[in-house]
Write a structure and sequence with these properties.
Elements: E1 7-10, H1 26-35, E2 39-42, H2 43-46, H3 68-82
Parallel strand pairs: 1-2
């Protein structure tokens, strides 16, 4: 009604930093979102996979919220996707 665009931002957890981690729900979630014609913004692809050490996106490199730098990278990635 307001001609707005809806974005789904997929935020990876600390588990993504483990070697050979497989997110069993990722493909199902992505398919549902894309089937609904919603733009899927994949922060794992846009940020985490580009990091030499993605654990540095978390305080003390342990499970928690993202660091300031981590949130900044996420925000920049989302902004870049929205302005496309």
């Amino acid at each position: 009604e307001k001609n707005a665009t809806f974005y789904f931002v997929y935020l990876p957890s600390y588990s993504y930093t483990r070697k050979n981690f497989v997110d069993k729900d990722y493909n199902d979630v992505k398919k549902i979102i894309e089937d609904l014609n919603i733009t899927f913004v994949d922060i794992n692809e846009l940020v985490f996979k580009k990091e030499e050490n993605p654990k540095k996106l978390f305080p003390f490199e342990i499970w928690n919220h993202y660091t300031i730098d981590g949130y900044k990278k996420v925000a920049n990635a989302v902004f870049d996707e929205i302005k496309k």
